[in-house]
Amino acid sequence: MHKTELRKKYKSLRNKLSLTTIEDLSIDIANQLLKVPVWNKTYYHLFLPITEQKEVDTSFILSVLQGKDKEVIISKSNFENHTLSHFLLTENTKLIKNGYNIPEPADGIEVPESKIEVVFIPLLAFDHSGNRVGYGKGFYDRFLSKCNPDAIKVGLSFFEAENKPVTDAHSNDVKMDYCVTPGHIYCFNK
């Protein structure tokens, strides 16, 4: 399927989820994530959800990371060039919502992509080959291409893999190593 079709389909499916269902599914994803072999690292990039878009609530994953004394990194978006800059999340980090309702750090200690060892990735859909479909601006492809090649890329999805492959994946699209859903852990390229 084409990315445009997948975006439409999965935005619609997500919009039908109640807040209670989102919370329950997000807890299930966090519990599944505990089974993925990524917990021996130090620097973890976590997206903060756009609640208006009904994204996975990553607060449960954040609690796990903090409980394991991991360094958590969050991003700030630059919509002029579709890039992300990354900051250490500390108890002093002030979060503000940008014009797209993305919670972002106001400022802080900037962290280079090369230090990031695990990236949790938001997405709308994915296929059995590890291709993911996001909102289509390429923020994460640009970011992931700058990360160390050994960085582990983990998608988070409320829904299972699309049975039909993404037919218009580009050569610059960065595939995931894992994708975690409430019911499954998909492993790609490992």
TrEMBL record:
Gene3D superfamilies: NagB/RpiA/CoA transferase-like. It is an enzyme of class 6 (ligase). Keywords: ATP-binding, Ligase, Magnesium, Metal-binding, Nucleotide-binding. InterPro entries: FTHF_cligase, FTHF_cligase-like_sf, NagB/RpiA_transferase-like. Its cofactor is Mg(2+). ATP binds at K3, T4, E5, L6, R7, R132, V133, G134, Y135, G136, K137, G138, F139, Y140. Belongs to the 5-formyltetrahydrofolate cyclo-ligase family. This is 5-formyltetrahydrofolate cyclo-ligase. It comes from Abyssalbus ytuae.
